[in-house]
Amino acid sequence: MMSNETSATGENLAIESVQTFPAERTAVVTGAGGARGIGRHVARKLASTGWNLALVDIDEDAVVTYAAELTAASGRQVVGLGLDITDAAAVERAFERIDAELPPVLAVVNLAGVASPDTIFEITPELWDRVMGVNAKGTLLMTQAAARRMIDAGTGGRIVNTSSITAYDGGGTFSKTGYAAAKAAVLGLTRGAARELGRYGITVNAIVPGPIDTDIMGGQLSDERKQGMSADIPVQRVGQPQEVAGLVNFLVSEDSSYVSGGSVFVDGGKHMV
After folding, report:
1. CATH superfamily ID and name for 89-272
2. What percent of the chain has pLDDT over 70?
């Protein structure tokens, strides 16, 4: 679609409009049950910018309770679903419920993940499967289910996956080899999906957090741990979940329609060290 605007000098400018979304739309956010997780901050931010929400977490009680709280606070439609994202049949059933109860899904934000502080000699096959399953397989299954619906609806859409600085530096802050491998797999998945889905108006990007003040690194961070983690970060502090939420909000917006296949760092510059 083309629209015309006139510049301050009177020059007529032809501007190709960015992708636009319907007013009533839904974003699916995984990992939204944790009280101190990034998911809740993302959910609040998206609700404030007009998204209806399907919040997903393995902890059904927590996510259902939070969905009700956010509905009351935001006035948006918010549904909470307990879900094991590594179970393909369960993922499909969850999306069928979302289809029935909410407006069309135009975004999925894959935040659910599990850490792994185990060294390469401590990783068992069972642990490997769990870490790869939640971080990589779960991201794939959620992406597949959402993308099929976006394609069928002809709306385009946004997919945001979560990698980690650990995929680049191999770990050290908390998680180690298994987590690094899983989060590196998310980067490959993101790029492949971006290449295949772009023709449908679907963008796919990965966020790459550094140390964020959540519980994923073995519990709430003490001031001493924060100080130690900050030593090699140019901005000299750990990040806050709401700073990640701001980036996600942009990546699911209409304004990001020409951003795809990217790995966007939100790490205070740690990746440069």
Report:
1. NAD(P)-binding Rossmann-like Domain (3.40.50.720)
2. 85
